[in-house]
């Protein structure tokens, strides 16, 4: 039996036995491959313009579509020979010819580069404005940087201007650029200690040149909707629990429910119920004079796993929502025992109800 050996020093994708494989010349054809076919290291030959420059990778646009092209993983797999190229030669607007092989990538096919050649400057195509369905057809990292002199919230806001979608950002973490670079290095295939140190230094230089002071990460949920769209940014302190998808859908539904009940009378007629995954905790700590009670804490066991401290009276009030009682009925019980004007009691009670529905501790009734 004659083994088939991929020749690395000759034309990419040619085999030492059997006919040569014709290279793929279209980005669209590569992106249309299944993960199984992309993993076959099919030969590629593309001509186009660089639209994004990374550390050891770039994005090439062939006039019709774009695709990620990588050197680091190509070298780790023994495909790229010699030293890495000067990535500064591949700045946005540079025209290039590349050869390589297909790879399934993390979530979409990409090209592992084995050869490239500059062919002069070219015009970068105008940005696309894809439909929401296309944006949601795959998954991607949701990471954004914080630049010196600009809040990360304002930077995110510009991402979503005019996109006809409601946007809910769930910020999970913020990391110093050096810690983030170390984390990403650990996720990649190790080269050598010297090479990794060189890569780390180059990344830090990149952050410094672009005034990056922090890298934030989390989830971005988008829903297409007619009318005035909103952007909401929440910081999640806990790791996510099970059933996260349904928790996010419920969050959008809660926002719709409250928007339709801005009038107090409409909310008073609602029949919310306490979410079944809620748990109420209280600790006692030893102190002067004995055990000292600490604030009660209401927590969600699943989904977004939010938590907040509660006054005992609020905890008792929330327990009255069993899915059969209206907000008006619960309010009447509180007002009967409160030492305050009924109008003021109603204002405070409705403020609590709105907040608890918004955070998912109270579930709005299904339409």
Structural overview:
The protein folds into three domains: 27-121, Bacterial OB-fold (OB fold (Dihydrolipoamide Acetyltransferase, E2P), Beta Barrel), CATH 2.40.50; 141-236, no CATH class; 258-363, Outer Surface Protein A, domain 3. Residues 1-18 and 132-143 have low confidence and may be disordered. Helix content is 30%, strand content 28%. It contains twelve helices and 16 strands. It is elongated and about 85 Å long. It has a five-stranded mixed barrel with strand order 1-2-3-5-4. Helix 6 (177-187) crosses helix 7 (193-209) and helix 8 packs antiparallel against helix 12 (342-359). The N and C termini lie far apart (68 Å). Strand 1 (43-53) and strand 2 form a beta hairpin. It has helices spanning 27-31, 35-38, 72-76, 132-135, 152-159, 177-187, 193-209, 244-259, 264-268, 312-318, 327-337, 342-359, and strands spanning 43-53, 57-61, 66-70, 94-103, 110-121, 143-147, 165-175, 212-224, 231-235, 273-274, 278-281, 284-287, 290-293, 296-300, 307-310, 362-363. By secondary structure, the protein is of the alpha+beta class.
Taking strands numbered 1, 2, ... along the chain, how are they ordered across the largest sheet? 1-2-3-5-4
Sheet bearing the most strands, described?
5 strands, mixed, barrel
- Number of DSSP strand runs: 16
Count of helix runs? 12
Structural class of the helices, strands and pairings? alpha+beta
Distance between the termini: 68 Å
Share of β-strand residues: 25-35%
Q: Looking at CATH, which topology of the largest domain would you report?
A: Outer Surface Protein A, domain 3
Please name the CATH architecture of the largest domain: Alpha-Beta Complex
Number of domains: 3
User: In which range does the helix fraction lie?
Assistant: 25-40%
- Helices and strands, in order, run as HHEEEHEEHEHEHHEEHHEEEEEEHHHE
What overall form do the CA principal axes indicate?
elongated
* Text of the CATH class of the largest domain: Alpha Beta
Given as residue ranges, the uncertain stretches (5+ residues, pLDDT < 50) are 1-18, 132-143
